[in-house]
Design brief:
With 268 residues, this protein is α/β, with parallel strands linked by helices. 41% of the residues lie in helices and 23% in strands. It binds S-adenosylmethionine.
Length: 268
Amino acid sequence: MTSAYVHGYHPRESERLRDQAGTLVELLHSDTSYPAGSTVLEAGCGVGAQTVTLARNSPGARITSVDISADSLKEAKAKVDAAGFTNVQFRQADIFALPFDPESFDHVFVCFVLEHLQRPAEALLALKKLLKPGGSITVIEGDHGSTYFHPDSPAARGAIQCLVKLQQAAGGNALIGRQLYPLLVEAGFDAVHVSPRMVYVDSSRPDLADGFTRKTFTAMIKGIRGSAISSGLIEPESFDAGVDDLYRTTESDGVFCYTFFKGVGERQ
Ligand SMILES: C[S@@+](CC[C@H](N)C(=O)[O-])C[C@H]1O[C@@H](n2cnc3c(N)ncnc32)[C@H](O)[C@@H]1O
């Protein structure tokens, strides 16, 4: 069973995930590469936004990328093919019913997926069973509660809170980044280490202002406008004012901050 996916599968969302991945490659992936010959499971690959980086950083590894959405997988495969990588195979599968034998992977990689699951702890247990002894898991998640900015704006905070509430209503958790350590430890992983990865954006970093503040974070908030209003969480005017204020943080005197969390653990 899965939770409703709050961001949906619209083409604009695919574009947003690609912008997000492109902007954050260095911050999130620079310390992830797998040895030649190792087997890697990417669980919840979506449209392949991270898959291309995984394939590039670990050219000798054999990567299996799964997602529950056949349409997303198609897009992911096209993206990986277009980039010329041949070390990835795709398979449609549910994380809670993965069609692999126990202990069949050396490494597992999960990015921006646990936040959408009703039972993230159970997902981690299921993924752990697929790891060989000594294998590693890497999990990357955001935490919308880590968002702060200048000029501060109650309207912008209100719009962000709508996403937190919608995701909660769908069974997910937009504040899961802060829970990675206890989740990994409770799932029985050893040597768990979580590192915060802060995105700091001011106008001296126009690429990040565009790629992250505008096209990733604010685009994500804009994407839930319809559901936030129709579910009675906010008035249209307040929501739109919040989005305007998020854009406002990309002006010359504006600042935007967000923290991702990257956790790694080992199976004994
Ligand atoms: C926010 S996207 C992240 C995609 C990709 N990892 C990335 O970082 O761009 C979350 C993905 O998890 C997938 N997903 C959600 N529940 C799933 C489940 N139970 N099994 C497999 N995939 C799932 C969704 O279809 C979606 O593609």
